[in-house]
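Usage

Read records sequentially. Each one opens with the input sequence:
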Amino acid sequence: MGMKFTMTRGIARDLLAQAGKAVDEEVCGLLLGDTAGHIDTILPAANVHPDPRRFFEIDPAVLIAATRAARGGGMQIIGCYHSHPSGVAAPSATDAAMAARDGKLWAIVADGAIGWWRDGPDGFEALPSPAQRG
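and closes with the structure output:
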């Protein structure tokens, strides 16, 4: 996936709405779309981490189902999102330590803002907000 990516109108609204549902805990989910880097939808997932106020872990059942759907020709997993209820819209030290360095997108929601990042081989790279289409 190249440096540019796009998203369907409403994705930012949906991410902010998800983050607003749990003001004391991190919310999380997947960004789904195509291999060209267009985000079509978000797939909310339960945060199954034992300490959801400070960390996130996407429900493995959601991740497995999305991976199977992608292998079957469905939307691809473009990346993930999560919120920082009392932080900033940037990767934390924990995010950096847990990242897979797989080139996927990360959307981090905090304080009414969304930070966009690529999880690259050398760490997180800040990205501009994506263009909206559709």
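Summary fields computed downstream for this record:
- The chain has a mean pLDDT of 94.
- The helical segments are 11-21, 60-71, 93-98.
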